[in-house]
Every structure is written in structure tokens, then in C-alpha cells.
């Protein structure tokens, strides 16, 4: 009975490994197709070190064991586009957790101040109630739905104008937005389907297009 149980575990492990192999293979193939649709290049492995390149973005300073894969990149519509699957780990031993991220980054010719936007959650509301508030806007609906942080409130107000608010509130599932220097990072803290990266890129592009460029400076990098 014990031997049968060990064999069963082995069969399940082999089946799991085979499934993972073919799922990863299909994802690579699908990501390559997305790259073609976007008119960009595809590389299955990270050859440049995304965590090092984007170290000014807080996402890439979290945890350890940073790893990017399925990279779609190239110049498109006046910006350098970098789309990829990303993961990092936190904790140790039994408490070690691997976090999966789907990211789209635009490198643009202008310079941004730091701005962070994401959907507001329950803990944000508690923090706001005890005085640790984010930036509020005239639109109470927008302020109740989004958590906004910046090192320059005026810059945040300039970027998040009424048309931008309307744009952001159209989405039930909006990516987290983190912008600093020449980089605009848009990411989900989960794995999205390859085809969904097209929508993520379109979101990133529209966000940038709605940004009033008079508040930006020429990028010095």
C-alpha cells in the first residue's frame, strides 16, 4: 500500500511537470504572436536584467529571486515599449511566497516626477481614517476609488485632470501605475493572458497620450 502511494505521488509529479512544460511552451508561442501583432520583437528569456534597468521603480526592489521572461519590446509610437512576465519572492521557509506580475513599461523622451496610482483598498480607507491619507481630488468618486501618492501634489493634480479621471474610472480592473523619471510602469499583480497584454499596452499608451506634456521636462537619461 505504501509503495502504491509513492508510485501515485510520482505519477502526479510527472504529470504536473509535463503539464507545466507544455503550458510554458504554449505561453511562449502566444506571447510571440502578440509581439508580432504589436510590431515588436520577442525574447523568451531576460538577457538584460529588468530589475537592474528599472531599479528606480519600487516594484523591482521588492523581495528577491527576481526573474523576467517572455519579453516583448521595441520602439513604438515614440516610446520604447517593454512588456514581460515578472516574478519575485518574499519571506523564507514555509512562509516563502512567489509573486507573479504582468508588466508593461514605456520609456519616453520626457521626465516625470514620481506618481503612484492604484485602486484603493480596505486598508487604505483605515489608514485614511487615522490620518495617513493619500492625495484627494475634487471628485469624491475618484478619491474613493483610487489611492494616489506623489512627491509633488501639484504634479499629481496636473496629471490627473478631469478627462484622466474619467478615463481611469472606465476600468473595472485597472493596472497599478507607477511613474518616475522617464519610465511609466503599468502592471497587474497576477499573470494575464498573452492577448491581454495588447489591452495593457493600449491602456498605457492612452494614459500617456492624455498626460499634459507641458508638465514634463526633457529626459536627461
Structural features, described:
The chain has 221 residues and is α+β, with helices and mostly antiparallel strands. It is 38% helix and 33% strand. It is built from 7 helices and 7 strands, in the order αβαβββααβααβαβ. Strands 1, 2, 3, 4, 5, 6 and 7 form a 7-stranded antiparallel beta sheet that branches. The longest helix has 37 residues, at 2-38. The radius of gyration is 20 Å and the shape is globular.
Which stretches are low in confidence, meaning pLDDT under 50 for 5 or more residues running?
Answer: 126-132
Strand percentage, roughly? 25-35%
* Biggest sheet architecture: 7 strands, antiparallel
Q: Report mean pLDDT, rounded to a whole number.
A: 87
The helix content is 25-40%
The span between the termini is 66 Å
Write down the Rg: 20 Å
Tertiary shape: globular
Class from helix and strand fractions:
alpha+beta
Task: Describe the structure using short key phrases.
7-stranded antiparallel sheet; alpha+beta; globular; 7 helices; 221 residues
Short description:
With 221 residues, the chain is an alpha+beta fold. It is built from 7 helices and 7 strands.
Task: Give the topology.
Blueprint: H1 2-38, E1 41-45, H2 50-53, E2 64-76, E3 79-90, E4 97-119, H3 122-129, H4 140-145, E5 146-150, H5 153-159, H6 162-168, E6 176-188, H7 196-210, E7 217-218
Antiparallel strand pairs: 1-2, 2-3, 3-4, 4-5, 4-6, 4-7
